[in-house]
């Protein structure tokens, strides 16, 4: 049964291993020989830093097949089979068949940020680079990219590289670096436009005098160090470098989010190779990037901002005595009136059932908005007005008189309306609406901390959900990308993934693990010691019986398993409830007086995954310290599926002698988004399909 307890026990290697909890390392291959082995695969010589396993050769073969044929690929290879290293070595070996890697001078003359520079010296290198395909390597998070760049250092390849990050990670301006989100971007644009940021002003010269930058692997931290010691802006250095590279590292959302992608000027998409590593949740990221949820509480904040703009405008005019056309109070008054009408209209929709909400086909959004005279045509004017509003609010907050930017400015809420209009009127057409659902639901509880909510008034959310993740992928095909490679430890079933993404994937691989069957035991534990079923489904997981039985099972495992034991719960609340119960109670049949928790702690010292990300490094250190403590027989880490412990960390050797999964975090079937997505997929499977899957 899917709701039982799942236990996984890897059998330890005989060596007394040390305990690093670090992000995943390549498989335990022999140390690099003096000369790296060279493998000839599909006519390409691939330098590999270790003796490769069979599954690694197969994997590199598929990567090369995809690149040589210009086809898309789905490549599944279990965690620990060194897929990152295989990807880098095979892709860079293929890239080198076109000619040597780029060297200094690339991107040197591109002006720091928004100023065009007088220098023409990068002309030659820029054209030189454009004839070669660029490799764009994307992963989900920056910490995963840091790992990838670390792997690149282990290879013999030294391509010209760049890594993209956000201003939040890279800005070193004393005022702007304190801001967040859109406010930070606006603050940066404002200062650069007025040439008031000394870091941005020297980027061009720094790039001209340091043409070798990017020839050795580097990380975001390295760029920030250059900025702190030498002064140029790390953010704009990374943007300049990215214009002429062999390989570019970036987080997913930079490529998938249309706004972010627009800002990446200078990348030659034509014939580029896109690699999505850790691609197992790519569909949900693609669908989310094309969807929006508009809370009425956020609308209220937008109305307040529009009102501020009207006041700032009138104030600006009275001081400057000019009628600047861009800042016409009349425009902001129209914007405010429209937003108020939208708020009223959302509030007037009749919702018969709170559980079902108000649902219409995706195309209904055009009818809904046209009643407010928001159409494809008028939306252009609205977007212009919102853009100028952002500038106006920025100037208003920075108090024009001072050179700096005051850190008091908040996030510009109006930007969310702009993004929403962008999604709805994408490309001026309505063709994409058939992949959407229009949904409004009501929640009486406060949803977000910063909403200005009228007490007791129910808050509504207008959602336009995209159920076709392939829309984002289509954009890449329009840009003329050569191959898209998706890889992860868990991609199967490959058919449904390919169907969801609406792309052809002629090259596919499901690799076996390098670990043999007798090195690991996986089993399902259906009942506890007193015969009570371990069913973690919604109906039974709250019962006293279940919590007692689960606690006793974990006590038994803690007694038998040496060193580190990991226990995963479906959610934070479930973990908290179980631990609270165990701390106060014992099993009814137990002869021992102590609580279940005390019995666990007798065998292993506990560490609990914190909800706050900032406390997480301390929890990891605490776990490592408790494992090293000779006075006990190890430690037990209580964590949450899909949380911070569940991905990107390597519990090697003593750190993870067994893993217990108490239940799966399935989304509730009554959740409107889940329900509508299922209906959408059922519809997809039925109609004219001769061979429905």
How are the elements arranged and paired?
Elements: E1 5-10, E2 21-22, E3 38-41, E4 44-47, H1 54-69, E5 73-76, H2 83-96, H3 122-130, E6 135-139, H4 142-154, E7 161-163, H5 167-170, H6 181-193, H7 198-201, H8 203-209, H9 220-230, H10 234-241, E8 247-251, H11 252-256, H12 258-262, E9 273-276, H13 282-289, E10 292-295, H14 296-320, H15 329-348, E11 358-361, H16 364-370, H17 376-398, H18 414-424, E12 436-443, E13 459-466, H19 470-478, E14 483-488, H20 494-501, E15 507-510, E16 520-525, H21 544-560, E17 564-569, H22 572-584, H23 596-603, E18 605-608, H24 616-628, E19 635-640, E20 650-651, E21 658-661, H25 672-685
Parallel strand pairs: 5-14, 5-15, 6-8, 6-9, 7-8, 9-14, 17-19, 17-21, 18-19
Antiparallel strand pairs: 1-16, 1-21, 2-20, 3-4, 10-13, 11-12, 12-13
Helix pairs in contact: 1-2, 6-17, 9-10, 13-19, 14-15, 14-17, 17-18, 21-23
Care to describe what's here?
Helix content is 41%, strand content 14%. By secondary structure, it is α/β, with parallel strands linked by helices. Among the domains are: 297-318 and 326-396 and 412-443 and 458-468, no CATH class; 526-661, 3-Layer(aba) Sandwich (Rossmann fold), CATH 3.40.50. The strands form 5 sheets. A 7-stranded parallel beta sheet has the order 7-8-6-9-14-5-15. Strands 16-1-21-17-19-18 form a 6-stranded mixed beta sheet, sandwiched between helices. Helix 6 crosses helix 17 (376-398) and helix 21 (544-560) runs parallel beside helix 23. The chain is globular and about 85 Å long. The two termini are 25 Å apart. Residues 14-28, 105-129, 400-409 and 446-456 have low confidence and may be disordered.
